[in-house]
Structures are given as C-alpha cells and as structure tokens.
Amino acid sequence: MVHPVYRSGTTSRIIAQAKTFGASLAGMVRIGALGGAPSYDRCGLVPRLSGAGSLLVLALVHRHSLPELDWWDERKGGTPGNRRMEETAINLARWLQEELTISARLLPYHVERGGVFLKDAAVLAGLGVIGKNNLLLTPQFGPRVRLRAMLVEVEVEPPEVGDFNPCARCCMPCTRACPREAFARDSYDRLPCSDQMRDNEANRVSIAGVGKDTTLRLCTLYCRACELACPVAR
C-alpha cells in the first residue's frame, strides 16, 4: 500500500493535538524505520504492521507524587495511567478522521499481541534515548513516562534527532538503587529485573482507589527503584 507523505507542518499539528488530548509528549516515525530497532534485531523479529505508514508514540508523565498511575489492577486497561492514554488515543483517532481524513488506531500494549517495542519506537520518534539503566530517558521528564503507540495511515518526514546523552557524565545512582542488583556486572541484566517483577506480581497489595472511587482492589505495584533514582529532568 502506498501512503501519502505528510510534511512536518501536519506532523507538528498532530503532535500538538495529541498533547491537547492529554499526552505529555508525542512523536512520529515511519513504520519502515522500526525494522532496524535494537529490540527487533536482538529478538530476530520483524514488525508486522499493516494498513499504516507511520507510528505515533504517546508518552504520559508519571511523576513521583502520582504512584497510582502505574498500579496494575483487574479493571480493563490495567492501570489508571494506561486508561488515560487509551482515552487520549480514542479522542485523537476521532480528531484525525474528522479534521484530516486520516485513519488511526491504538496498538495493543504487548508485542506478542500485535504491539511494538515501545522504548525503541520512542527513540526513533525523537522522544529521547535509551539510558544505561535500559529505560527511555526524555529531556523533559527523564525516565518517568509511560508509553503507548498508534498506527497512522500516512507517512511523515523523519524526526530530528539531537545529541541528548545524559548518562555520559552521570554517577549512575540507578545502579545502586536496584533491589536485585541488576547492574552488578556494570551493565543491565534483565533476569534479576524479571525476578523482581514476578515477586511484585505474586505479592499484590489491597489498595483503595483515588478520587470518588475508593473501592478496595488488589493491585500489583511494580518496582520503580532505578527509574525514581534517575536524576535526569528530576
């Protein structure tokens, strides 16, 4: 399928509208650029995304003062933060169709269910870089963001990539904060991190909702030690 190419003016308009609907950051990248992402190369996978020319990456800031955004519960959407991002995507898809006659749809969160490697996609979309802590680091919010992605039927101009490199002169407090010593070998080790996640899932906590909904729910509180210790944009 041949997709029309939209120049930066339209791309900027889409990104601005995404922020109007609730995204803290947004960026776009052509689908063809995803194949060279490190995660796809490491896993030997090829992105299979039909019916679209570009990927729109949405980021929502997750501040230290709002831990509940990332509490995984049994409701649809998983977390309050993810539900907010899904609402942003629904509103944005409707706006794209009505204002620009562009079709778009929200992708599943998990790669195995048809999603994309979100951190890689965010880097390619110009939102930041992957730090030595294996987290996406953004100039505006450091690693304290949550990501989702949408397929958009048009192609866009490649985003500008700066020289942002916050880990170069950092004393790396993230490596000392890890409760599982995932950085004991001077680089990120996924296995201890995965063990911590399984431990979080096995020890869910009963927590009352915030705002008007104070119903008690079992929630998974995933570890954020390295993320919260990171000084970038803190």
Give a description of the structure.
A 4-stranded antiparallel sheet has the order 2-3-7-4, with helices on both faces. The chain has a two-stranded parallel sheet with strand order 1-8. The mean pLDDT is 91. The chain is built from 7 helices and 10 strands. The protein has helices spanning 8-20, 38-43, 80-100, 118-124, 173-177, 190-202, 225-229; strands at residues 5-6, 25-30, 54-61, 104-106, 129-130, 136-137, 145-152, 155-156, 205-208, 216-219. By secondary structure, the chain is an alpha+beta fold. The chain folds into 2 domains: 5-156, NADH Oxidase (3-Layer(aba) Sandwich), CATH 3.40.109; 173-229, no CATH class.
Task: Write a brief structural summary.
It is built from seven helices and ten strands. The protein has 234 residues and is α+β, with helices and mostly antiparallel strands.
Indicate the multimeric state. Answer: single chain
Unreliable residue runs: none
Q: From the helix content, strand content and strand pairing, which structural class follows?
A: alpha+beta
Structural domain count: 2
CA distance, first residue to last residue: 43 Å
Give the neighbour order of strands across the main sheet: 2-3-7-4
Number of strands: 10
The largest pleated sheet is described as: 4 strands, antiparallel
Overall pLDDT: 91
Q: Mind telling me which CATH architecture of the largest domain this is?
A: 3-Layer(aba) Sandwich
Count of runs of 4 or more consecutive helical residues = 7
Strand content: 15-25%
Q: CATH topology of the largest domain, what is it called?
A: NADH Oxidase
H/E series = EHEHEHEHEEEEHHEEH
The CATH class label of the largest domain is Alpha Beta
Which percent range fits the helix content?
25-40%
Radius of gyration, in Å, reads 18 Å
Shape field: globular
